């Protein structure tokens, strides 16, 4: 996994999470978004391999 892609997905999801006020404070939303981004980026190669893309 490319570290740059991982950081990009984490940053995008973290910034987008700021629009989700139901999660609580901005810092918590930022953290949740970063974790979602890291998970999505980490799973991308697995999904590509499984789908043979």
TrEMBL record:
Protein name per the record: Uncharacterized protein
Origin superkingdom: Bacteria
Segments passing through the bilayer: 29-51
Keywords: Membrane, Transmembrane, Transmembrane helix
């Amino acid at each position: 996994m490319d570290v740059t892609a991982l950081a990009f997905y984490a940053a995008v999801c973290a910034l987008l999470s700021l629009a989700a006020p139901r999660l609580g404070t901005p810092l918590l939303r930022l953290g949740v978004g970063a974790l979602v981004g890291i998970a999505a980026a980490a799973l991308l190669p697995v999904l590509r391999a499984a789908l043979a893309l």
